[in-house]
C-alpha cells in the first residue's frame, strides 16, 4: 500500500460579528472595580457604625463620603466628555473639580480635629480614597459598556 496523504481541509474560523471594542473593559476589571467600591464604602460605613463618636459627627463623615463620591464621578464624566468632544461648560467643570477637592479637604480637616487614634484616622482616609478611586473606575466601566451597547 502506498502512503496516501490526504489533506483534510481546515475550517477557517469565522470572525465574530460582535467584536470587542478597544475601550471595552474586561470582566475582571469590571468585577475588581465593583469589589473595590463596595469594600471601601462598606468598610467606611462599618467603621462609622462602630465608632465611639456622636451621631452628628458620624453624619458629617457619612455626608462627606456621599459628597465625595458624587463629585468624583462628576469629574470623571466631565473629563471624559471633553476628551470625546462633548461640550461641557467651564463653570460645571470647575465646580466638579472644586467639589472633589472640597470633599477631600473637609475629610482631612475633620480627621485632623477628631479625637481618634492615628490608626482610625488612617483607616477612614484609606477607605475614603478607595471609595472615590473605585467610583471613578465603576463610572468609566459603565460608560464604556454603554458605548458598546449603542454601537
What does this structure look like?
The structure is a single chain. The N and C termini lie far apart (59 Å). The protein has helices at residues 27-50, 55-83, 90-113, 118-150. The chain has 151 residues and is an all-alpha fold. The chain has one domain (28-150).
Question: How large is the share of residues in beta strands?
Answer: under 5%
Unreliably modeled segments: none
Q: Mean of the pLDDT scores?
A: 85
H/E series, N to C? HHHH
Q: Secondary structure elements and their pairing?
A:
Elements (H helix, E strand, L loop, with lengths): L26 H24 L4 H29 L6 H24 L4 H33 L1
Please sum up the structure shown:
Helices cover 73% and strands 0% of the residues. The chain has helices at 27-50, 55-83, 90-113, 118-150. It is mainly alpha-helical and 151 residues long.
Characteristic terms for this protein:
flat, mainly alpha, membrane, 151 residues
